[in-house]
Amino acid sequence: MEPLLPKAREARLSELTCEVLKAAGRLTGQVHSRVVLDRLADLVREMNCYYSNLIEGHKTAPREIERALKRDFTGDEAQRDNQELSLAHIAVERIMEERLAAGPVDVYAPEFVCWLHREFYSRLPDRMHWAKTTGGRPYRVEPGRLRNFMVDVGRHTPPHFEALPEFMDRFHAFYGGTQILETTRLVAVAAAHHRLAWIHPFGDGNGRVVRLHSQALLIQHGLGGNGLWTLSRGLARRRQRYFACLAAADRGRQGDLDGRGALSDAALAGFCEFFLETSLDQIQFMSGLLDLPSLRTRVERYFQFQALHLQRYREELMRIVRALVDEGEIPRARVQVITGKGATVSAEIIKRGLEEGVFESPSPKGPLRPAFPAAVQEFYFPQLFLDLPVEPDSEPAS
Fold first, then answer.
1. Residue 156: CB atoms within 10 Å
2. CATH 1.10.3290.10 fits 10-289, yes or no
3. What is the dihedral of CA 54, 56, 57, 61, to 10 degrees?
4. Class of domain 292-380 (CATH, top level)
5. Residues 60, 61, 63, 65: what is their CA dihedral angle, to the nearest 10 degrees?
6. Pair type for strands 130-132 and 138-140
7. pLDDT band at 388 (very low <50, low <70, confident <90, very high)
8. Which of 362, 295, 302, 355 lies closest to 325, judged by CA?
9. Per residue in 275-323, pLDDT tens?
């Protein structure tokens, strides 16, 4: 799988690296309230699983994800499976972030990659531990276990299963080593995304694990933006291009001017460029959405033009939500100041807002905190969840 780091397009990749680093730094400092930050990170996890499902050809509406988080599953078996995939993805992403925050993690180690796969599949019901070969033969997917059979992924035949430990060790030694300079670390993250997909270590679930692994790398290297952006949205928006770039980087070296490894240096550089461009696009997109004056305006417009079912207290609820977006958390007594109403009416307003889900509280008398239920997401955060078509001629990423 050499080369593991491209030599081609170095100037362009360096330029993109600088732009991504600057944009990620701006995004990290954009939200000052820890409460708002945590709630937005929850929303981005939901978005991440939505787009990861979409990349794999499974569409799960945000409202279905919201229902699944409340253990409210649909009666349709296929849609329920998608809800289960969403729940597993959100859970693994959360514990992955907690593990990375707890202390140093060797993110390139085979053990960590297998841990991601095991944690994901262990959260799925047994009926979803089965997959089929291209010939239609069913086989069981063992959580966290390297595959013990041969597979084909489009036109690419991954390494023989007996050689997987050696490939994973080489992956670990190179990308986890000290020879990669900090100035090229982001390019290495992009290259590692392709090379792990190329190894195809598991019987199924490789696409999801590779994307989770890339997210772990971005967090580990300080580019996670406090959980405020996700690569999967960009990959889903450019799904056909994503698969095409992956497939191109699978091909062998194209002559003496295409590096010195077995695989194409130029094609790997092309994939890395696509990866960095996509990352930059998504960071900039989220920066625009989270611009506080713009977000405050969209909240106001939601209550003025969309929440028409709120016959009473619509204006008062808008003021409360606007304050929560600004400050993150307010005591219940503050509602009287914000609305100009007495204690009894303020209590009614709070009750109505909690029923509508436009804000939440950790306890019956606890402070109020912002909430972003599916009903308001498309108004507060337009285009966050895009209803993208699934291209039938694209290769599956599993």
1. 16
2. yes
3. -30
4. mainly alpha
5. 30
6. antiparallel
7. low
8. 295
9. 999 999 999 999 999 998 999 999 999 999 988 888 889 999 999 999 9
